[in-house]
C-alpha cells in the first residue's frame, strides 16, 4: 500500500473505535469530530496529505524496497550521508507546517521504529528476543503508512532509588501470563502523546530494576481489547484560530495508558523477560542517534518560529533601537545557530555503524538536546519580556465583530498595524508562551528526551568512554 492521504488517516482512526476517555466521559462516534481531537487530527492529516504534493513528494517519499510504491521517507534506513541529509530535509518540511510544535508528528515514531529495525542484529541470539518480529513490524508500518504513538514510562508513584512495587494489582505495566499464543499485560504506562489518535501503540520498558515481567517491547493496535487511553484535559480551548492560533491546531493530547489484561500475540512481541536487553537496547541501538537527529531538526524549525514571533513583536511596536532588546534577540539567534551547527556536524561526521547503517555522530546531538531544555524556557521568557502588557490586552475575535471594532482598531493599534492585526500577532505570542498549550510546550521541551540531569550523565559517560578515562 502506498503513502496514505489525510482523508485516509482520519477515516482509519475514526473506524478503530479505540477506548478513549476525557473529562470523565468515554468518547463515542468519530474521534475526528470531537472538540479535543478535531484540530490536531486535521493537522496530522495535513502532514499525510503533504506527501502527495508534487512539489514536495521527491523530498518526503521514496520507493519501497519491496513493492516500489511511494512510501514515507521517515522510514528510510540510512545507508549514506546523503540519506541523513534527506531525512533532515523531510523532517523540516513537516516542522515548517506545524512550527515544530508537534513533537509526535508521524515522522518521529516512524524514525524510532526505523532505528530499532536498523538494530535487530543486537537482538540476534539473545534469550527471549525476536528480531524477526521487529523487522516484520517495521516493514508492516512502512508499507501501511501507519500512525504510531508510544509509551515507555511507568506511572510516577515513587521515584526513590530502591522502590519496589508490592501491590497485588500491578501499577506499572506487567506481564501477568504467558502461553503459546502470546502474553497478557496488566497495569499502566505513561505518557502516550497523541494517545488514541494513532493506528498503533509501541510499548517498551524504559529501564528495569530486576523484574523480568516488566522487561519487554511490543506493538499493538490502539483498539486492542482491554486497552484504555485516559486523556488529560484538552488545551485546545476553542476552534477559533484568531483566539487560539496554535492550540486549536496543534495540541497533541497526552494520555495515561491502562492495560486491563491486554493480550499481545507473539508475532507482535520483540523481546520479553530479558532484563539486560530491556536496559541496554535503546542505548546500543541506533535509537538515540537517529531519533535525536529527528528531534533536533524539528527544534531548529521551532526556534526559527519563536525568533520570527519575537522579531514581529519588536517590529510591531518599534523597540529594536533599545540595546537590551537587541541583546535578547541575539540570545535567541545564538541558540538557533548553535543547535543547527550541531545538527549539521552530526551529519558531516556520520559514520557507518556496526549494524551496517550510517549513523549521525551522537556527541553533537546529545549536546544539542542538553542545551535546548535550558534555553527554550529562556526564549519563552524573552518573548514575554518583549511583549509585556501586550500579552494581556488581547480581546477575542467576537469582540472585534461588534460596534467596538473601530475603537479597538484605533486604541490597540501599533506603529505598523491596526488593532485587529496587532492583537492577532500578540495572541500568537500568548498562545506560545502563556496559554495552557504554551506552558505545556515549555514543560514538554524541558523533559522531551528525559530528565536533564540524567542526560548530563549520559553525555559525560559518552565522552568519558571516547577519551578512555
Automatic annotation (TrEMBL):
Enzyme class, UniProt record, top EC level: oxidoreductase
Gene3D superfamilies for this protein: 4-hydroxybutyryl-coa dehydratase, domain 1, Butyryl-CoA Dehydrogenase, subunit A, domain 2, Butyryl-CoA Dehydrogenase, subunit A, domain 3
InterPro entries: Acyl-CoA_Oxase/DH_mid-dom_sf, AcylCo_DH-like_C, AcylCoA_DH/oxidase_NM_dom_sf, HpaB/PvcC/4-BUDH, HpaB/PvcC/4-BUDH_C, HpaB/PvcC/4-BUDH_N, HpaB_Deino-type
A molecular function GO annotation: 4-hydroxyphenylacetate 3-monooxygenase activity
Pfam families in UniProt: HpaB, HpaB_N
Domain HpaB/PvcC/4-BUDH C-terminal per the UniProt entry, residue ranges: 278-466
All copies of domain HpaB/PvcC/4-BUDH N-terminal, residue ranges: 5-270
Keywords: FAD, Flavoprotein, Oxidoreductase
The protein's Enzyme Commission number: 1.14.14.9
Protein name as catalogued: 4-hydroxyphenylacetate 3-monooxygenase, oxygenase component
Organism of this sequence: Solibacillus palustris
Lineage: Bacteria, Bacillati, Bacillota, Bacilli, Bacillales
Gene name of the encoded protein: hpaB
Amino acid at each position: 500500500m502506498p503513502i496514505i492521504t489525510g482523508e485516509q488517516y482520519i477515516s482509519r482512526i475514526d473506524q478503530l473505535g479505540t477506548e478513549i476517555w476525557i473529562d470523565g466521559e468515554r468518547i463515542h462516534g468519530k474521534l475526528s469530530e470531537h472538540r479535543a481531537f478535531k484540530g490536531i487530527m486535521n493537522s496530522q492529516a495535513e502532514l499525510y496529505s503533504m506527501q502527495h504534493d508534487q512539489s514536495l513528494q521527491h523530498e518526503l517519499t521514496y520507493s519501497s524496497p519491496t513493492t516500489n510504491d511511494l512510501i514515507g521517507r521517515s522510514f528510510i534506513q540510512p545507508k549514506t550521508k546523503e540519506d541523513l541529509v534527506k531525512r533532515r530535509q523531510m523532517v523540516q518540511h513537516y516542522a515548517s507546517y506545524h512550527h515544530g510544535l508537534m513533537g509526535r508528528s508521524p515522522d518521529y515514531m516512524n524514525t524510532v521504529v526505523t532505528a530499532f529495525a536498523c538494530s535487530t542484529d543486537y537482538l540476534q541470539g539473545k534469550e527471549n528476543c525476536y528480531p524477526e518480529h521487529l523487522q516484520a513490524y517495521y516493514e508492516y508500518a512502512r508499507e501501511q503508512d501507519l500512525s504510531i504513538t508510544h509509551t515507555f514510562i511507568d506511572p510516577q508513584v515513587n521515584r526513590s532509588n530502591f522502590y519496589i512495587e508490592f501491590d497485588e494489582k500491578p501499577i506499572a505495566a506487567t506481564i501477568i501470563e504467558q502461553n503459546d499464543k502470546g502474553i497478557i499485560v496488566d497495569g499502566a504506562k505513561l505518557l502516550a502523546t497523541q494517545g488514541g489518535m494513532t493506528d498503533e501503540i509501541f510499548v517498551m520498558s524504559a529501564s528495569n530494576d530486576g523484574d523480568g515481567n516488566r522487561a519487554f517491547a511490543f506493538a499493538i493496535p490502539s483498539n486492542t481489547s482491554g486497552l484504555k487511553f485516559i486523556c488529560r484535559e484538552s488545551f485546545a480551548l476553542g476552534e477559533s484560530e484568531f483566539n487560539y492560533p496554535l492550540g486549536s491546531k496543534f495540541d497533541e493530547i497526552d494520555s495515561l495508558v491502562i492495560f486491563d489484561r491486554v493480550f499481545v500475540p507473539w508475532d507482535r512481541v520483540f523481546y520479553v523477560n530479558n532484563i539486560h536487553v530491556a536496559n541496554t537496547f535503546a542505548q546500543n541501538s541506533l535509537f538515540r542517534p537517529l531519533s535525536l537527529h529527528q528531534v533536533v531538526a524539528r527544534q531548529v524549525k521551532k526556534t526559527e518560529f519563536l525568533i520570527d514571533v519575537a522579531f514581529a513583536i519588536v517590529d510591531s511596536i518599534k523597540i529594536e533601537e533599545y540595546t537590551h532588546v537587541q541583546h535578547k534577540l541575539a540570545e535567541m539567534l545564538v541558540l538557533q545557530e548553535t543547535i543547527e551547527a550541531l545538527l549539521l556536524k552530526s551529519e558531516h561526521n556520520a559514520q557507518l555503524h556496526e549494524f551496517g547503517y550510517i549513523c549521525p555522530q551522537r556527541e553533537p546531538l546529545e549536546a544539542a538536546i542538553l542545551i535546548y531544555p535550558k534555553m527554550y524556557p529562556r526564549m519563552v521568557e524573552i518573548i514575554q519580556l518583549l511583549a509585556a502588557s501586550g500579552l494581556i490586552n488581547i480581546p477575542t475575535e467576537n469582540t472585534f465583530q461588534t460596534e467596538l471594532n473601530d475603537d479597538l482598531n484605533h486604541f490597540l493599534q501599533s506603529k505598523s498595524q491596526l488593532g485587529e492585526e496587532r492583537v492577532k500577532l500578540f495572541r500568537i505570542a500568548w498562545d506560545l508562551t502563556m496559554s495552557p498549550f504554551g506552558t505545556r510546550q515549555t514543560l514538554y521541551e524541558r523533559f522531551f528526551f528525559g530528565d536533564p540531569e540524567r542526560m548530563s550523565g549520559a553525555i559525560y559517560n559518552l565522552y568519558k568512554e571516547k577519551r578512555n578515562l
